[in-house]
Amino acid sequence: xxxxxxxxxxxxxxxxxxxxxxxxxxxxxxxxxxxxxxxxxxxxxxxxxxxxxxxxxxxxxxxxxxxxxxxxxxxxxxxxxxxxxxxxxxxxxxxxxxxxxxxxxxxxxxxxxxxxxxxxxxxxxxxxxxxxxxxxxxxxxxxxxxxxxxxxxxxxxxxxxxxxxxxxxxxxxxxxxxxxxxxxxxxxxxxxxxxxxxxxxxxxxxxxxxxxxxxxxxxxxxxxx
Length: 225
Ligand code: SF4
Ligand code: SF4
Ligand code: SF4
Hints:
Elements: E1 3-8, H1 17-25, E2 52-60, E3 63-71, H2 80-85, E4 91-93, E5 100-102, H3 111-117, E6 124-125, E7 131-132, H4 138-141, H5 148-152, E8 158-162, H6 163-180, E9 185-187, E10 194-198, H7 214-220
Parallel strand pairs: 1-10
Antiparallel strand pairs: 1-8, 2-3, 4-5, 6-7, 9-10
């Protein structure tokens, strides 16, 4: 059955349990990192880091806010990376769960094109040119288990289940969040399987928190990088 996540950033404490659980389940090696002056570490997603708890400090309404964003692939309903690749040996969508899955055959693809096709700046390539990103823990999910990151989250920030249930939960939590954060919103809820709730505008958390239009950026020169 079609699956989805609901990620409530208002409940995230940046404990990084999800980041560690993702490494453990996917047998991903550690990376050499440096202190960035905040809680975020490593500095970006990579072929060895599929889940990254991003952190920013922002002054909002005259007060300092810590913004946490547990970033990962959105498993788009109509995935631009998959459409661009046109190679189901390299990138395919699981018919049952809806997970967008990358295989070792991605090394045949032009990495920068696939990365450029992703509106959330998610895929990363390793030294061999093989692309990698969150798998939705499709191996666990197909056996009736929750993704490792979701199972680990102690606060209820990460939720997983049937897509329609996640959409309903997202709307319910949004209503409650708006009582405290009038600008709270869901990010691209009709386009993705990983629905984020943020208390403030998505771009305050991360330039690619909401879908980024690279074509418009190339046309106008206005964009995050
Ligand atoms: Fe592909 Fe990016 Fe969508 Fe993930 S978020 S399915 S990598 S286009
Ligand atoms: Fe990592 Fe699995 Fe969570 Fe994706 S679903 S971020 S692969 S633990
Ligand atoms: Fe946030 Fe949950 Fe991840 Fe901890 S485990 S960083 S609370 S999403």
